[in-house]
């Protein structure tokens, strides 16, 4: 591209001017070639041009002139190239400098809505104890932990909601842990007193369930129900996604919908399509599925819409 610019007739006068300036201002600091290198180079040029080797005195003068010419050519390339490149590409570089700023990274933030309708804003800074009836809610380092002092007379439901760009970790009253991804919500009771432990999820959550064989844990996602005993799994159920994906890391889960059910093995993913109510099971890249929980993005052959 540089050579094309040099050969462009529109640049001829500028190139000649820069060549003259480079030649007039050039002062060699040291020989570009040793005497032996110069003789070898001159001999090769002479052989290729079929010329008669001149006398030693003329040869020496020719060596000196060639060294100066070579150095001048190098300086010419740098000077001319810089001028033409700046002239041609500077407007684009200025446009890039005024580009849009990066999006701010996400952090720990959420809103806890209690059964009485009151809401509490949570972040990763405040450390406090929230007392609500006989329930103690501990907020510390971006995590929320429920502790039941005495069994409540009446079970009530709370809701943890994360905004876009936020996520939060919750320890449920039974000791199960939930990581809630951005733009998600989890509805859960203040105590698990019945025969089942039931929560409702919108968006995406990663679960580590405390083992209680006599009291199975169930996650409800719209028409879908994921039933577990003791396991680690991820559910992605955003409203703007075309499918609901349940991915198992450890243990065993049963994914049920309208009578149909699939039992997953570790490393498998159940994909439910709400449009035609179909469900399939496939092997999953668990590192990619749970990357968000570890503060990472992994895109492997993903399309732009997914990214």
Give the key terms.
35% strand; alpha+beta; elongated; six-stranded mixed β-barrel; single chain; 307 residues
How would you portray this structure in words?
The chain has 307 residues and is of the alpha+beta class. Helices cover 26% and strands 35% of the residues. It has helices at residues 2-7, 12-25, 35-49, 56-97, 286-289; strands at 107-113, 119-123, 128-132, 135-140, 143-148, 157-161, 166-171, 177-180, 185-189, 197-208, 217-221, 224-228, 232-237, 244-250, 253-257, 260-264, 268-273, 278-283. The chain has a 6-stranded mixed β-barrel with strand order 1-6-9-10-8-7. A hairpin with a 5-residue loop joins strand 7 (166-171) and strand 8 (177-180). It is elongated.
Strand order, main sheet: write it out.
Answer: 1-6-9-10-8-7
Q: Element order, helices and strands?
A: HHHHEEEEEEEEEEEEEEEEEEH
Gap between N and C termini, in Å? 35 Å
pLDDT < 50 runs, ≥5 residues: none
Give the helix tally.
5
Count of β-strands: 18
Q: How would a crystallographer describe the biggest sheet?
A: 6 strands, mixed, barrel
Topology:
Blueprint: H1 2-7, H2 12-25, H3 35-49, H4 56-97, E1 107-113, E2 119-123, E3 128-132, E4 135-140, E5 143-148, E6 157-161, E7 166-171, E8 177-180, E9 185-189, E10 197-208, E11 217-221, E12 224-228, E13 232-237, E14 244-250, E15 253-257, E16 260-264, E17 268-273, E18 278-283, H5 286-289
Parallel strand pairs: 1-7, 5-7, 10-11
Antiparallel strand pairs: 1-2, 1-6, 3-4, 4-5, 6-9, 7-8, 8-10, 9-10, 10-13, 11-12, 12-15, 13-14, 14-17, 15-16, 17-18
Helix pairs in contact: 2-4
């Amino acid at each position: 591209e540089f050579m094309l610019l040099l050969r462009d007739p529109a640049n001829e006068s500028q190139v000649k001017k820069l060549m003259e300036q480079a030649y007039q201002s050039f002062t060699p600091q040291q020989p570009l070639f040793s005497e032996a290198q110069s003789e070898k180079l001159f001999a090769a040029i002479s052989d290729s041009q079929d010329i008669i080797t001149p006398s030693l005195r003329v040869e020496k003068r020719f060596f000196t002139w060639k060294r100066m010419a070579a150095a001048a050519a190098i300086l010419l390339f740098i000077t001319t190239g810089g001028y033409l490149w700046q002239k041609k590409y500077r407007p684009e570089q200025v446009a890039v400098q005024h580009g849009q700023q990066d999006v701010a990274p996400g952090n720990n933030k959420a809103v806890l809505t209690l059964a009485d309708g009151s809401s509490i804003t949570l972040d990763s800074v405040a450390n406090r104890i929230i007392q609500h009836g006989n329930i103690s809610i501990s907020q510390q380092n971006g995590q929320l932990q429920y502790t039941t002092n005495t069994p409540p007379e009446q079970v009530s439901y709370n809701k943890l909601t994360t905004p876009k760009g936020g996520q939060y970790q919750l320890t449920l009253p039974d000791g199960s842990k939930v990581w809630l991804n951005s733009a998600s919500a989890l509805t859960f009771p203040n105590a698990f007193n019945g025969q089942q432990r039931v929560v409702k999820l919108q968006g995406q959550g990663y679960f580590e369930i405390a083992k209680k064989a006599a009291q199975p844990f169930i996650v409800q996602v719209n028409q879908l129900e994921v039933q577990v005993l003791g396991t680690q799994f991820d559910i992605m159920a955003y409203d703007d996604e075309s499918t609901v994906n349940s991915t198992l890391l450890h243990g065993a889960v049963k994914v049920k919908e309208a009578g149909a059910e699939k039992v997953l093995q570790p490393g498998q993913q159940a994909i439910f399509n709400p449009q035609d109510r179909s469900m399939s099971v496939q092997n999953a890249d668990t590192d990619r599925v749970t990357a968000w929980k570890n503060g990472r993005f992994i895109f492997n052959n993903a399309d732009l819409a997914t990214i």
